[in-house]
Backbone:
């Protein structure tokens, strides 16, 4: 079997599609997430190329241990896809739930930070690798209610650039992929299980699909070795930029 990708958030959406794509291309995947039943279902479906690893990326010790918690034949990891993340709520800053803000920072910022710190040393030791972070257009463009979610994704984009600055001489490539409107379980999570409200987000539009992002990740990691794709911003064709807000008296 081929090289190994370590994919966080492999239980649904982009991470699941990325796992499927890499396995289809002959890679092994250490597939991580909290919903371990889904990881085992992936293993049952895709076979020995998948190693299911129960992991909450907010748990610093667990993430550091995870870098060594897979069978020897899976190591060293060639590609880390730091994908696990979420948005919670869409309330304005004066009413947003502070626990939601904490969870987004703990997952999208600190969880991603731990994942990178845990996996990059084995890439350095192996003399090469590729870190793919999943940011968002929300990290570049503000929208009402995007407050802390967008800020966490701005962190992701900047960390990706700074990682590249640190790792340039070590054969390790870094790419931040920044999707726009995409249909996954993202909105069900954002609206805390309200499937009806989540479905409305995708009503009458053709959003990005998980396979589109899997394709983009695969493209970025299969560029010739002398190229580094720094960042890719990708929107659904139906999506563009909002107007500036002007409040008139
Ligand atoms: N969909 C969009 O419109 C969109 C646009 C731009 C960027 N993104 C970003 O894309 C990434 C993937 O999201 P998605 O759209 O594919 O949503 P999704 O279907 O809800 O998938 C999110 C994944 O993240 C995992 N996750 C969440 N919290 C975790 C934690 N504490 N520890 C480990 N894993 C955790 C979930 O696994 P478990 O719950 O099983 O742990 C799940 O596998 C996120 O970083 C998101 O911010 C999404």
Residues:
């Amino acid at each position: 079997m081929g090289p190994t990708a370590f994919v966080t958030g492999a239980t649904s959406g982009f991470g699941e599609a990325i796992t499927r794509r890499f396995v289809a291309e002959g890679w092994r995947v250490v597939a991580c997430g909290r919903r371990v039943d889904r990881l085992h279902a992936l293993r049952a479906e895709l076979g020995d190329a998948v190693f299911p690893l129960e992991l909450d990326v907010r748990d610093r010790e667990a993430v550091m241990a995870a870098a060594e918690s897979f069978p020897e034949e899976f190591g060293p990891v060639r590609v880390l896809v730091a994908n696990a993340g979420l948005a919670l709520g869409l309330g304005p800053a004066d009413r947003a739930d502070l626990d939601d803000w904490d969870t987004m920072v703990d997952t999208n910022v600190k969880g991603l930070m731990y994942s990178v710190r845990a996996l990059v040393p084995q890439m350095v030791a192996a003399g090469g690798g590729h870190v793919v972070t999943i940011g968002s257009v929300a990290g570049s463009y503000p929208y009402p209610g995007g407050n802390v979610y967008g800020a966490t994704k701005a962190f992701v984009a900047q960390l990706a650039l700074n990682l590249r600055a640190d790792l340039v001489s070590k054969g390790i490539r870094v790419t931040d992929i920044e999707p726009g409107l995409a249909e996954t379980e993202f909105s069900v999570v954002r609206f805390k299980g309200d499937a009806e409200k989540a479905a409305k987000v995708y009503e009458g539009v053709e959003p990005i699909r998980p396979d589109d992002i899997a394709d983009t990740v695969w493209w970025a990691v299969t560029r010739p070795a002398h190229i580094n794709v720094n960042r890719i911003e990708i929107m659904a064709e139906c999506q563009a930029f909002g107007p500036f807000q002007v409040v008139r008296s």
